[in-house]
């Protein structure tokens, strides 16, 4: 049997197909102004990678992410908090804390040893500590997101970024650049600033090892390093692209839901 | 999830709660009746009812923009509810009231009066009463004096006499309404009630926005209908309680209930707090009886020094009685009064194994995307996972 999970986030759409126990990832699709179109593009990519001709071949589909209610072809929707937890625990049952840094929000999720959500914390109405913050800073520095995340830019002499508001931090960084502070110092300062905010969120949710990162910021090595230092733990790597954790969790839910419905008959 | 309630009287109450002015209030005015607006649930309606007036709780229903109000508040850290409520006053939507009494429950609320006085939104009668922040015999006496002063000001301004007999009649009517509201509220103790949380909020809010006798009769009718209705079998995913400041906008209940949950109880200024207990009906001094009720009997407000034990006791009693599975602590932006209280309660809930979702937001019902995600995840969590 085949199952689909789709994560329609604020900046990207991702889909996963599960055929029996095999996980097939789609592509990262940039969000279009129409969520329904993004959803279809993301799912088509996953179907193509799975060698499945049509959407109708999927037995059950679960949607998640901010656009989850706009996915017309989904059988039901589940919050991304539950889906990230489900996806990460499915791949790594030792996971107890998930830090998801998405395009416009950031969450910390605490799990029990059965993979159930013990609690969660989420940023409120502010772009600090989210992918958007990095986008703004990358634009100011002209180094691209790759430059912000590059291991080569981790510096032992980080600049101090005191503002966590994206708007005020932007002007602070312009000042640092104008004062000829070396780029790696500024970048490390940015990553430390975000790590400080995110780790505070994580501590409120409750941090227990293993700790993993999901969402689009997973490949920012400077951030991962700073987060590990802030939390005093080693951040573990998930065995599949962490940007797909929401979609994977949705697909695992789809499989479980379909089984539960079959059992109920 | 809607209850499927089909009731003309409920539709009427819901319509009244969902707007500020209503045909019922306009009809009252047409007949020569006076309307007196008030803020804060500690301002006693009995005094206005005894004066033959319609007490109207000033609220921010439907506000999307507090822009004009922000011109008046000198500090940026004023609670969202206060800013939006004053925005409604400036918009002219309260032009139908004949006077207003501002309760100095919290500092933010007090600023409404200061700003109203210097705004172009003129009102012929604008008074304040200071609401004690401590519950004891001394402050109950002080509040009695506040009420006596307000009564004298009303008598002078409106050319009326508010006698003890009228006060006693008003106490009896308001007590009867509180009793009916408690009866309505208690439907949700059952697993499959005939009325939802959002519907209950609407039916309670209407009570402070229409003629009292008419409301009493409507409430009796509604309760009769609810007792008679055969409720279709429904399975709710979670039984939720909401704690926090004024909550006349049922949008949070709507979100919980659209996700398959049920809001079964609350401790908010428009909900469970307004119907608690009764004013003593046979006291020698009815004004003192009203003051005792507000100061000594229902101190469930974090504005009160030392109120926390009674808030805790009331909440845990409700958690047990209404079989609450999780609590949403809702704070409006910059409401430090409730912000601190929910921080303390959070520790106690955690120790007792009661799940808590803390939400801080604007008091308006916009920006529901992130709110919906958090509430959905909370319901999935307390209902034992998404499965």
List the SSEs and their pairings.
The complex is a heterodimer of chains A (265) and B (387).
Chain A: E1 2-8, E2 12-19, E3 22-25, E4 29-30, H1 35-50, E5 60-64, E6 76-77, H2 80-91, E7 97-101, E8 106-111, E9 117-122, H3 131-141, H4 144-149, H5 166-178, H6 183-205, E10 211-214, H7 221-231, E11 235-236, H8 245-264
Parallel strand pairs in A: 1-5, 5-6, 7-10, 10-11
Antiparallel strand pairs in A: 1-2, 2-3, 2-4, 7-8, 8-9
Helix pairs in contact in A: 2-8, 3-5, 6-7
Chain B: H1 8-17, H2 23-30, E1 35-39, H3 45-50, E2 54-57, H4 67-70, H5 80-90, E3 99-103, H6 107-118, E4 126-129, H7 137-158, H8 164-185, H9 197-205, H10 212-228, E5 239-243, H11 251-258, E6 262-267, H12 286-297, H13 308-321, E7 326-332, H14 336-352, E8 356-361, H15 368-382
Parallel strand pairs in B: 1-2, 1-3, 3-4, 5-6, 5-7, 7-8
Quick overview:
Chain A has helices at residues 35-50, 80-91, 131-141, 144-149, 166-178, 183-205, 221-231, 245-264, and strands at residues 2-8, 12-19, 22-25, 29-30, 60-64, 76-77, 97-101, 106-111, 117-122, 211-214, 235-236.
Give the uncertain stretches of chain A in residue-range form: none
**CATH architectural designation of the largest domain in chain A:** 2-Layer Sandwich
- Corresponding CATH architecture of the domain at 21-165 in chain B: 3-Layer(aba) Sandwich
User: What is the element string of chain A, with H for helices and E for strands?
Assistant: EEEEHEEHEEEHHHHEHEH
Tally the helices of chain A: 8
Order of helices and strands of chain B: HHEHEHHEHEHHHHEHEHHEHEH
Q: How would you state the average pLDDT of chain B, rounded?
A: 91
Overall, the morphology of chain A is: globular
CATH fold-level label of the domain at 21-165 in chain B? Rossmann fold
- Determine the most extensive contact between two protein chains: A-B, 21 and 17 residues
Instruction: Provide the structure class of chain B.
Output: alpha/beta
State the helical fraction of chain A.
Answer: 40-55%
Beta-strand portion of chain B reads 5-15%
């Amino acid at each position: 049997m085949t199952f689909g999970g789709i994560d329609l986030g604020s900046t990207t759409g991702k889909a996963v197909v599960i055929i029996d126990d095999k996980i097939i990832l789609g592509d990262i699709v940039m969000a279009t102004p129409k969520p329904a179109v993004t959803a279809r593009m993301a799912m088509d990519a996953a179907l193509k990678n799975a060698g499945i001709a049509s959407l109708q071949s999927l037995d059950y589909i679960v949607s998640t992410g901010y656009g989850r209610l706009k996915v017309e072809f989904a059988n039901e929707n589940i919050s991304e908090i539950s889906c990230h937890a489900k996806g990460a625990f499915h791949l790594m049952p030792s996971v107890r804390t998930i830090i998801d840094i998405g395009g416009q929000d950031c969450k910390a999720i605490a799990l029990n040893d059965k993979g159930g959500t013990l609690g969660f914390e989420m940023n409120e109405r502010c772009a600090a500590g989210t992918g958007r913050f990095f986008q703004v800073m990358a634009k100011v520095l002209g180094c691209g997101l790759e430059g912000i995340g590059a291991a080569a830019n981790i510096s032992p002499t980080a600049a101090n970024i005191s503002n966590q508001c994206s708007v005020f931090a932007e002007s602070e960084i312009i000042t640092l650049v104008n004062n000829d502070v070396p780029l790696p110092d500024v970048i490390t300062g940015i990553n430390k600033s975000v790590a400080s905010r995110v780790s505070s969120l994580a501590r409120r949710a409750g941090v227990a090892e293993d700790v993993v990162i999901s969402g689009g910021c997973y490949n920012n090595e400077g951030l991962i390093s700073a987060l590990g230092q802030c939390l005093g733990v080693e951040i573990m790597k998930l065995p599949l692209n962490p940007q797909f954790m929401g979609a994977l969790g949705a697909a695992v839910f789809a499989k479980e839901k379909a089984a539960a419905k079959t059992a109920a008959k | 999830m809607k209850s499927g309630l089909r009731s003309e009287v409920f539709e009427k109450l819901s319509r009244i709660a969902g707007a500020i002015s209503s045909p019922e209030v306009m009809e009252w005015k047409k007949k020569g009746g006076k309307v007196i607006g008030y803020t804060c649930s500690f301002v006693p309606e009995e005094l206005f009812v005894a004066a033959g007036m319609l007490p109207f709780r000033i609220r921010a229903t439907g506000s999307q923009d507090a822009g004009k109000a922000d011109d008046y508040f000198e500090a940026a850290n004023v609670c969202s509810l206060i800013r939006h409520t004053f925005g409604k006053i400036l918009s002219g939507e309260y032009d139908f009231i004949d006077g207003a009494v501002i309760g100095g429950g919290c500092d933010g609320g007090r600023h409404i009066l200061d700003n109203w006085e210097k705004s172009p939104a003129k009102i012929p009668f604008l008074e304040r009463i200071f609401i004690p922040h401590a519950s004891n015999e001394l402050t109950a006496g002080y509040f009695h004096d506040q009420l006596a002063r307000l009564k004298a000001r009303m008598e002078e301004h409106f050319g009326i006499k508010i006698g003890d007999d009228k006060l006693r009649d008003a106490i009896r009517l308001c007590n009867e309404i509180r009793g009916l509201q408690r009866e309505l509220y208690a439907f949700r103790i059952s697993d499959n009630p005939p009325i939802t949380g959002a519907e209950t909020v609407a039916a309670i809010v209407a009570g402070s926005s229409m003629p009292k006798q008419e409301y009493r009769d409507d409430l009796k009718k509604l309760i009769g209908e609810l007792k008679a209705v055969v409720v279709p079998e429904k399975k709710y995913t979670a039984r939720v309680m909401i704690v926090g400041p004024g909550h006349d906008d049922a949008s949070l209940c709507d979100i919980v209930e659209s996700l398959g949950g049920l809001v079964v109880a609350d401790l908010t200024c428009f909900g469970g707090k307004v119907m608690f207990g009764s004013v003593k009906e046979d006291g020698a001094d009815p004004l003192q009886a009203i003051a005792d009720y507000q100061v000594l009997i229902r101190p469930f407000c974090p504005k009160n020094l030392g109120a926390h034990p009674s808030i805790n006791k009331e909440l845990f009693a409700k958690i047990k009685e209404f079989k609450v599975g999780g609590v949403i602590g809702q704070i409006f932006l910059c409401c430090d009064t409730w912000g601190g209280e929910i921080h303390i309660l959070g520790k106690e809930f955690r120790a007792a194994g009661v799940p808590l979702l803390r939400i801080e937001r604007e008091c308006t019902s916009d920006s529901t995307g992130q709110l919906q995600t958090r509430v959905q995840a909370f319901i999935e969590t307390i209902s034992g996972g998404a499965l």
